[in-house]
Design a protein that fits this description.
alpha/beta; four-stranded antiparallel β-sheet; 33% helix
């Protein structure tokens, strides 16, 4: 069936990407010269995508994820997020843009051991000055959704690795970010635990959250719909994949 635009002879337009990188490069000084970590990265991420960045150790994939998450502002080239620049701006401006839009999931969980599960979930909301009553309601919602209500008063060291990563995913999404960046989200888990975490991420993506993850595991990548391969700092492949059923 033709669209109205086609009937009127007008070309259909694709939505502007959530993320656009133009010629992004990253290097470090080394013995009077430079060691390149990223070279001439051009990349677009559309809202609602589920993409996996893959490559060998030292290829630059985690550095790229750090730039995407606006944790690293020391790079060349342009980074546009929803039409707003994340390059050439102050650290404060870039941090605000990241805080308002990005959630993180890390391989080593990065939970605070001296806080309970519920207190760990509350942290992203407290940083955003969400009123206490609303924070309590959203923490309760996340505890229920991720089936960890019974763990709310426990400390991270009292949880299994899989349970800790469940809490980490819940913490990443409690502030309703536009995009979740996951760095080897199953790397510290055995596969059954990792598979459960990937099902959580896929469910979030189905509900509209954009997911970009770093992984070396083809089983993890198979939960997404796109693979971006990076080697020696260069993107050498960017291809769609059929997600696993």
């Amino acid at each position: 069936m033709s669209t109205v635009m086609e009937e009127q002879g007008m070309p259909e337009t694709t939505p502007a990407p959530m993320i656009r990188l133009n010629n992004v490069e990253k290097s470090y000084p080394y013995k009077g010269g430079q060691t390149w970590v990223l070279r001439q990265i051009g990349l677009e991420i559309q809202e609602g995508e589920f993409a996996t960045i893959m490559g060998p150790s030292g290829s630059g994939k985690s550095t790229l994820l750090s730039i995407l998450g606006m944790l690293d502002g020391e790079f060349g080239g342009e980074y546009w997020f929803d039409g707003k620049p994340a390059h050439g701006v102050s650290n404060k401006e870039r941090a605000r843009l990241g805080k308002d839009n990005v959630g993180f999931v890390f391989q080593q969980f990065h939970l605070l051991d001296d806080l309970t599960v519920a207190e760990n979930l509350d942290i992203p909301l407290s940083y955003r000055n969400v009123p206490r009553k609303e924070r309590d309601a959203r923490v309760a919602e996340m505890l229920d959704r991720f089936q960890i209500v019974g763990k709310k008063d426990l400390y991270p060291t009292q949880l299994s690795g899989g349970q800790q990563q469940q809490v980490a995913v819940a913490r990443a999404v409690i502030a309703e970010p536009r995009i979740v960046l996951a760095d080897e989200p199953t790397g510290s888990l055995h596969w059954k635990q990792g598979e459960a975490i990937m099902e959580l991420l896929r469910e979030l993506n189905t509900e509209g959250t954009t997911i970009v993850q770093v992984s070396h595991d083809e089983r993890v990548a198979a939960f997404g719909r796109r693979v971006i391969e990076i080697a020696d700092g260069w993107i050498n492949a960017d291809r769609p994949i059929e997600p696993r059923s």
